Amino acid sequence: MNNTQNILTQYIYPMLPPHIPKLLMQLPGKLLANLTEIRIRVNQPLLLVVGNHDVMVADFGQTTIAAQAYHCTMQDLVKIFQVMCKNSVYAFEPELQQGYLTIPGGHRVGLAGQAAVFDGTVKALTRISSLNIRLARSIPGCAKLILPFVIDSINRRIYNTLLISPPRCGKTTILRDLIRQLSIGNTNLGIPGVQIGLVDERSEIAACENGIPSIDLGPRVDVLDACPKAKGLLMLIRSMAPEVVATDELGRAEDTAAIQEAISAGVSVIATIHSRTIYDLYTRPHIGELVQHKAFDRYVILSNRLGPGTIEEIYNTDQEKIYSHANEVKVCG
After folding, report:
1. Cα→Cα distances 91→57, 96, 99, Å
2. Which residue among 97, 101, 288, 333 sits deepest, i.e. has the most Cβ atoms within 10 Å of its Cβ?
3. Which fold has domain 147-324?
4. How many helices (H) and strands (E) does the chain have?
5. Domain 3-134 has what CATH class?
């Protein structure tokens, strides 16, 4: 049984009405091995995202004809939602206001439906009509190419690094493995194991259960689970004395301020952000200030061109290209 099948059996199938796992289990193992998303929409075909394409699921297997596919019902979504919320929607209100849930194993479930808005703020999602179950994977070694570029072996420190890509390009998977490899250390690159503080606001990176990571992040990582990034970064710096702090999906003003404070305190930062290029970041509120002030030493551009986690380019703090996938070599620096 491969890693994806283990994930499906342990975490995903128990959340679904029994007839849906039955449909999925008849699909080829090779297809399921590359599964990244399960999309469930009311009155629409059951859809799987596999690599860079999607397939519809029928009683007899995969199909490209919508009329042949199994069409999800409102009852399906209601049952799935109730199980994911453990029949206590109120306990998950903060996440639901952001449009997602994180289930055991660190798998994020996006939701869409009717929003309840008060004074311009989304208070809840009601009448859920769509679910997107995104499988979180641990892929040991997937950040191996990046590792030499983020280690300053002369000064024995880790460069402030920003992983950049659109959604579904493997940022979290790469971040997870980068944390693991730095935590272990690499004698060939002249870096011992690094003490790392991880703020896992959405419980995706470490997939904590009862506060304990269920994914191997190495021996030198302290995780602050389900905590807002900005507060968590500063808490870890003050309480755990990390050499590096890491977090996922920067965006808010308070995130920027916390990153600046961490760097000022001499702590290296590794983070991710949704974007396509460095240049797009200049127009983004808050994060644009960090880029303009050269807060980051390394920018890693990811895509899913050859599958999620494709490392396209790496730039230094002056935005000079030091790696290009097209060349498969360092091009400067």
Report:
1. 33, 10, 14
2. 101
3. Rossmann fold (3.40.50)
4. 11, 19
5. alpha beta
Q: Are 69 and 58 in contact (CB under 8 A)?
A: yes
Query: What would the pLDDT profile of 23-77 be if each residue is shown by its tens digit?
Result: 999 999 999 998 999 999 999 999 999 977 899 999 999 999 999 999 999 999 9
The torsion region of residue 240 among left (phi > 0), alpha (psi -120 to 50) and beta comes to: alpha
Overall size of the chain counted in residues: 333
281: its two tokens: 């970041």
Q: What is the pTM of this model?
A: 0.83
Q: Alpha-carbon distance 149 to 145, whole Å?
A: 8
Burial (CB < 10 A; 0-12, 13-18, 19+), residue 268, is: buried
DSSP three-state, residue 126: strand
Consecutive H or E run containing 63: strand 61-63
From first CA to last CA, the distance across the chain in angstroms is: 43
Cβ neighbours, 10 Å, residue 292: 10
